[in-house]
């Protein structure tokens, strides 16, 4: 059995684990948001968001891009990983001090003294998270996604239990802070236990410096993208207050859930596998296009559902007192598909060592989104959401063309891979709108209960049977089933009988 066949087996098993595990995490996170939204006020969420949108910048430096450096390398020594670990620890300690020092400035900027102690409490999390960066990278590098999934689930449950208990005890916004810190602590502790890797003394050499350079570029890219996609929260908090920021943040979190889910479930597996195919350009091309088609086909129905049934979603999940979030959710819903289309190219660029190009695309997005936020700011959260979606819609095709330039993949390849899902999505959107028009008066639960199955039936029926995509999806499902039911000892049998989905 070849190494590439072994890679395929590991990638498929990892895909099964990540899809199932992230599905569980998705349900847990959504349930947590729904429960906390009913226990806390918009202002509680807004206060914490005022801090996290600023400290999130520091969070990017916690990783320092060094987890990607560990995953992306075809071969890496223990000394190199140990050196990167100590760099992460140093950076985490510095960020803890910086975050603590930021507290009075945040309190002054927003004219909100409560932000001081929120910031001080969250500062500790940077050092905690830094201690687990390389352990997490080692799990991903080894494609041990079953283990990673178990850690994620336990971490989520611990954080959720803490947050709900504190909210019921009447602690208000401190419940969100407590959930965050417990999640970080349990997650890092779990990684240390299961990886069982102890770092040695740092060893500086040319390879480590090369990886640090890779990490710096990756970190700058993450920082640029973070600012581009979070600057509106600073503006809304400063000019519209904690209540409006809380409303925007809850709707935005609903939109981010599917994007985060796909990035975690598919992206981490795809990046690890693509990095191992750097010397096999044709297989890398085929693997990416199949992964891209899958990611896009999964985000399309979510986009349609959020756009058409935004009113019902907010009423069911959050309650009537959050009704102001409806237009924000509806206007942000196109970004589910937009990010589903542009985010996968980061997998390709990083796997091919083109991280500088990824950074350049981020630098191009930043002024685009900044102008959009400023244009929509006078109209409040809904205006910002609409302007952001419009700007990103115009950016999709230039982004794709820029990313694939000079690679083995063409724009035509990308368009062909998503053409059929788009046509099926248009028909599904029309069906969903028709159902809502006929059932809108009978209540949100009934509207969603009838509309969602109709939408999915139209979408799946057209895509798989009318447009002839059933061999791909059924072949993928068969491969996943084989991967899930086969252990390492039976790997050769699995590889021999599975459909060549990603070959």
Provide an overview of this structure.
The chain is built from 20 helices and no strands. The protein is mainly alpha-helical and 503 residues long. It has one domain (3-497). α1 (3-39) packs across α20 (491-497), α2 packs across α9 (206-276) and α3 (66-72) runs parallel beside α6 (133-141). Mean pLDDT is 81; it is low at 486-503.
Q: Which secondary structure elements does this structure contain, and how are they paired or packed?
A:
Layout: H1 3-39, H2 42-63, H3 66-72, H4 78-109, H5 115-130, H6 133-141, H7 145-168, H8 174-195, H9 206-276, H10 281-308, H11 310-317, H12 326-332, H13 334-342, H14 344-351, H15 355-376, H16 380-404, H17 411-439, H18 444-466, H19 470-485, H20 491-497
Helix pairs in contact: 1-7, 1-9, 1-19, 1-20, 2-4, 2-5, 2-9, 3-6, 3-9, 4-5, 4-9, 5-8, 6-8, 7-8, 9-10, 9-12, 9-13, 9-14, 9-15, 9-16, 10-13, 10-14, 10-17, 11-12, 11-18, 12-16, 13-16, 15-16, 17-18
Summarize the structure.
The protein has 503 residues and is mostly helical. The chain is 84% helix and 0% strand.
Secondary structure: helix percent? over 70%
Mean pLDDT across every amino acid position: 81
Total number of beta strands: 0
Shape: globular
